[in-house]
Automatic annotation (TrEMBL):
Domain Chorismate mutase residue range list: 7-99
Keywords per UniProt: Amino-acid biosynthesis, Aromatic amino acid biosynthesis, Cytoplasm, Isomerase, Lyase, Multifunctional enzyme, Phenylalanine biosynthesis
Domain of life: Bacteria
Domain Prephenate dehydratase per the UniProt entry, residue ranges: 99-274
Domain ACT: 286-363
EC id: 4.2.1.51, 5.4.99.5
Any one GO biological process: chorismate metabolic process
Stated name of the protein: Bifunctional chorismate mutase/prephenate dehydratase
Amino acid sequence: MRNPEITPVEHPLAGIRREIDAIDDQLLALLNRRAACAQQVAEIKTAAGEVECFHRPEREAEVLRRMAERNPGPLGRDVVVRFFRELMSECLALEKPLAVAFLGPEGTFTQQAAFKHFGHAIAASPLPSIDEIFRSVEGGACQYGVVPVENSTEGVITHTLDSFMRSGLLITGEVSLRIHHNLMGQCEDLAGIREVFSHQQSLAQCRGWLDRQLPGVRRTAVSSNAEAARLAAETPGCAAIAGEVAAELYGLGILARNIEDEPDNTTRFLVIGRNPVNRTGQDKTSLLLTTRNDPGALYGVLEPFARHGISMSKIESRPSRRGAWDYVFFVDVEGHRDDPTLAGALAELERKTTLLKILGSYPKAVA
């Protein structure tokens, strides 16, 4: 018989769990309150005739940076940025999801970059080529497009640079994505694999791992990593090298993670749209320019940046296709075109070039 004077001791987790439940209730209320505020913003913009301008890249970048800077932990910066990006994506989608074109098929790293930049609450549209992404945004079928522009081990993607030479679209953002290759399939272990599918670049980037872990196994290059995952899902005894998005999409198990030979392999993607982006204080500007084929002409073009103290992060040349040995230069500099210092340098630059095209000023990648 229990002694009525003895009070049962509460389990130490019970109080913590009650506190977690109370916090969850507060979070739920605050999340919906924030969503309601976002709806009010959309209503005000609609009344002002700004139907096409619900999404503001500069505002989104400012929110993400502020949350990352104010984060005291223990959650990491990347976790906080990812959470608030998804929250803003869902709030924006309450009115209408953003239509975003990416280099397909579904399951590619370009789709992964689109999700990283815009969140998952978008109407993602896979297209077969970079040219078609540009045309889709130019024609208004999609509000934005995401295209790869350079890889840390493979260099620039020339199709993207060439498309900017022909297009009037603007760069509205950038995404930096660490490229992690995973081996995936329906096999229970590596011993059951007789063939590996992947894009030829991915096979090359994982050559060392494949030589060590799967010597003698056939390697077959296909059009994309997503296509490799699809084939692996349909073909017994076969595996694919692709990103996590492809594994989720095609229901494959990941047999080995991060098998790339270069752990710092990173691809930079550009976001393209029709409208300019306002300054945030942490911006980049991309330029396309041509010079006369005279001695010292390129130095004369770059000198104003140095004199105005403007940092240049990239310069790349492409044939102009207007004549033999005639080149177009693609340049990335720090700052926004509306910054007084950069505006002054650009004014000087215009007098020294035969063509100066500002491809866009946009926020630096947040994470």
